[in-house]
């Protein structure tokens, strides 16, 4: 995974709450066996609508999605994260993320930045007034910044310490865990014999 | 201070704990299906890693598989590739697989409990959010993404921050004709889709204790629909009776040792939950959704709500968008909503008890002429059991389609989908836009409501039916 320190990119306002994973990428697009090529499925139903924000050239090349609360609810499909990344998004900002989506983002290297609801509203207002405006997301200082002058937005975002550290370092979880192989071995030695197994030797 | 059930199970699985880091949790059972595993196996290959414990891993084909012509090659080439990929991965890495055509094939969350692999006090994960189903046995069970699937394959562990605990206490008894599904839909309408976020939830109280294992699975299954990390129920005699004698259940002295341990898996009297919700089952009625998330539900006897009645602006906008998508007018009585397709099945309501209840209501009736009823057993075993009991004949005589096992129309990855604008009453778990097919409109319902709706063609409960003409008992 590539390390993530700070990112500046065009903000894209997605003025909806409860954006579930079936909206992010419908099941019919989940049949690929690779981690790439999912950009076509991203918000596919909504992209048929010419007024949908991803069809608005003012936000072309956007890489910071600003969404309503309860983003990523529903399915565990990591394809939702890959679809956002494949399309070019580096960051999703919302006031509340579904647990599995947030976990998947951390593993795959998409930054899920949780901010106060008021910050989402201010970012939406800014992006409506100045389409194409950029947002900076600084993981080091856990800060979101956008706009200039008296209306400039600068606020903190929440992300758990461990995920932040892994993203900053670009670490591979499995490598870290395999380093604790002795702990796993000794745990396994203590498991009750009656625990079920799928294969019997 | 005492501990809650989930804390006891959690503590038993901590391999390593360190300040400032998530716990490293041992995983007792890893379930796999074709959609969320291919990239994980690729990752193993890329890094020269193996599956640490194939003997704690089980794969089944469920999401993509056709429910017709399952003895022929899968017609959709992309689905076929995904299923073939699972078969190759299982063979290469030594994982037990129940493929299409195998007698143990079925929806992963139906197969685990059915084989007796799902037991109290376990940690169970799967690349599928409805893994919460297995919590019905007093296990900590939750859905994971593909990166985590790879992590479990390689290490049999997961890094997990300890969630907060919540108790949902449901007092008194459910009225006649009201089911576990109505209970959980009522709960989600009460909490909203984010209400459980960050919590492991323990369902308790008289109404929960009175549920069968199938009913408990229905409740735990939908924990994810209100955002909970997992949902579980303390194991009791009902649980032990369900497990005993199943193929992978312990036997003899090991059974006794297991039951002795399982019996200790209850929340201590002096344990504290971070949050509690209390509901009264006796006030619950058949419950249906009107909108595009599982929290947008009302009693069947109510009407489609007016967006203006929501105080919160977000809820109001969400309601307006949902009504537009669903093609519904505010104020319409739910009972007047006409349905094109009724889907009976899924990991929420595709077990033998569900099919028995549906057949009992449908027997002697005929499916409405403008309505299609699709009955999809959750597993091949469920299908065979239903056939042994003659349930298939009841469904077919009424004009229903009796299908093979799989996820089917719950998410429409196989050919079972809604057409744009088509409306369903579905015993599944999600009414998201397009979930059952692009432009499809879904109302989540219980088994009795599904059965009655199929007969009347409009959202109905069995109380709305005129007595059956033949074969009723």
Task: Summarize the entry for a quick read.
The complex is a heterodimer of chains A (201) and B (473). Chain A is built from 8 helices and 7 strands; from the N terminus they run E-H-H-E-H-E-H-E-H-E-E-E-H-H-H.
Describe the structure.
The complex is a heterodimer of chains A (201) and B (473). With 201 residues, chain A is an alpha/beta fold. In chain A, 32% of the residues lie in helices and 17% in strands. The radius of gyration of chain A is 19 Å and the shape is globular. The mean pLDDT of chain A is 96. Chain B is α/β, with parallel strands linked by helices and 473 residues long. Chain B has helices at residues 5-12, 38-46, 77-93, 108-115, 146-155, 180-191, 206-209, 213-221, 237-243, 253-262, 313-326, 346-349, 352-362, 380-388, 391-398, 447-456; strands at residues 14-16, 23-26, 29-32, 57-60, 96-98, 123-126, 140-143, 157-160, 164-171, 199-204, 230-232, 275-280, 287-289, 297-299, 341-344, 372-375, 401-402, 423-426, 441-444. In chain B, a hairpin with a 7-residue loop joins strand 13 (287-289) and strand 14. At the A-B interface, helix 4, helix 7 and helix 8 of A face helix 2, helix 3, helix 5, helix 10 and helix 11 of B.
Q: What oligomeric state do these chains adopt?
A: heterodimer
Largest sheet of chain B: 5 strands, parallel
Count of separate DSSP helical elements of chain B:
16
How large is the radius of gyration of chain A? 19 Å
Q: In what range is the share of β-strand residues of chain A? A: 15-25%
Strand order, sheet with most strands of chain B? 5-4-3-6-7
Radius of gyration based on Cα positions of chain B: 22 Å
Instruction: Give the rounded overall mean pLDDT of chain B.
Output: 96
Outline of chain A, from the CA principal axes? globular
N- and C-termini, Cα separation of chain B = 53 Å
Q: Order of strands side by side in the largest beta sheet of chain A? A: 4-3-2-1-5-6-7
- Helix coverage percent of chain B: 25-40%
**Pattern of helices and strands of chain A:** EHHEHEHEHEEEHHH
Poorly predicted parts of chain A: none
How many strand elements of chain B?
Answer: 19
């Amino acid at each position: 995974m590539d390390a993530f320190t700070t990112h500046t990119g065009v903000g894209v306002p997605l003025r909806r709450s409860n954006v579930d994973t079936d909206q992010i990428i419908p099941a019919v697009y989940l049949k690929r066996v690779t981690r790439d090529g999912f950009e076509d499925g991203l918000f596919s139903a909504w992209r048929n609508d010419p007024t949908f924000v991803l069809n608005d050239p003012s936000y072309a090349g956007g890489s910071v999605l600003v969404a309503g609360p309860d983003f990523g609810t529903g399915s565990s499909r990591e394809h939702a994260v890959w679809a956002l990344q494949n399309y070019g998004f580096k960051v999703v900002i919302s006031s509340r993320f579904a647990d599995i989506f947030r976990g998947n983002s951390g593993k795959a290297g998409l930054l899920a930045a949780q901010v106060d609801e008021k910050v989402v509203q201010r970012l939406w207002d800014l992006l409506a007034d100045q389409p194409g405006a950029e947002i900076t997301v600084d993981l080091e200082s856990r800060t979101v910044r956008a706009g200039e002058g008296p209306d400039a937005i600068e606020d903190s975002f929440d992300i758990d310490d461990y995920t932040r550290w892994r993203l900053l370092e670009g670490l591979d979880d499995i490598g870290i865990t395999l380093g604790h192989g002795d702990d796993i071995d000794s745990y396994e030695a203590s498991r009750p014999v009656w625990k079920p197994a799928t294969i019997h030797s | 201070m005492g501990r809650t059930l989930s804390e006891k199970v959690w503590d038993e699985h901590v391999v390593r704990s360190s300040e400032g880091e998530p716990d490293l949790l041992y995983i007792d059972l890893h379930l796999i299906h074709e959609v969320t595993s291919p990239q994980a196996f690729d990752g193993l290959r890329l890094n020269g890693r193996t599956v640490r414990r194939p003997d704690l891993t089980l794969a089944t084909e469920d999401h993509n598989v056709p429910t017709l012509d399952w003895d022929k090659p899968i017609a959709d080439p992309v689905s076929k590739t995904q299923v073939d990929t699972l078969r190759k991965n299982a063979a290469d890495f030594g994982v037990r697989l129940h493929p299409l055509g195998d007698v143990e094939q079925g929806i992963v969350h139906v197969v685990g409990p059915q084989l007796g692999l799902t037991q109290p006090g376990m940690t169970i994960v799967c690349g599928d959010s409805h893994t919460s189903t297995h919590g019905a046995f007093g296990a900590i069970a939750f859905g994971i993404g593909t990166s985590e699937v790879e992590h479990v394959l390689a290490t049999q562990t997961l890094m997990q921050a300890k969630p907060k605990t919540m108790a949902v206490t449901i007092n008194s008894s459910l009225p006649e004709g009201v089911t576990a599904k109505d209970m959980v839909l009522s709960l989600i309408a009460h909490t909203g889709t984010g209400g459980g976020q960050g919590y492991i939830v323990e369902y308790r109280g008289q109404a929960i204790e009175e549920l069968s294992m199938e009913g408990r699975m229905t409740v735990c299954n939908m924990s994810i629909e209100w955002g909970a990390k997992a949902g579980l129920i303390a194991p009791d005699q009902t649980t032990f009776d369900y497990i005993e004698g199943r193929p992978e259940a312990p036997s003899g002295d090991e059974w006794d040792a297991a039951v002795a341990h399982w019996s200790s898996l209850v929340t201590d009297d002096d344990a504290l939950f971070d949050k509690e919700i209390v509901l009264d089952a006796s006030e619950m009625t058949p419950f249906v959704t009107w909108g595009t998330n599982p929290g947008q539900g009302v009693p069947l006897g109510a009407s489609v709500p007016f967006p203006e009645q929501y105080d919160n602006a977000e809820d109001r906008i969400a309601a307006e968008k949902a009504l537009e998508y669903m093609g519904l007018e505010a104020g319409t009585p739910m009972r007047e909503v006409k349905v094109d397709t009724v889907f009976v099945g899924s990991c929420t309501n595709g077990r033998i008890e569900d099919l028995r209840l549906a057949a009992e209501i449908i027997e002697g009736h005929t499916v409405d002429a403008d309505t299609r009823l699709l009955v999809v057993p959750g597993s091949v075993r469920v299908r065979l059991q239903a056939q042994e009991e003659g349930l298939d004949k009841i469904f077919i005589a009424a004009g229903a389609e009796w299908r093979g096992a799989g996820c089917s129309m719950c998410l429409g990855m196989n050919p079972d989908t809604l057409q744009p604008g088509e409306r369903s009453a579905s015993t599944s778990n999600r009414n998201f836009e397009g979930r059952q097919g692009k432009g499809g409109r879904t109302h989540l319902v219980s088994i009795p409501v599904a059965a009655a709706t199929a007969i009347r063609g409009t959202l109905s409960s069995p109380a709305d039916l005129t007595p059956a003409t033949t074969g009723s008992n």
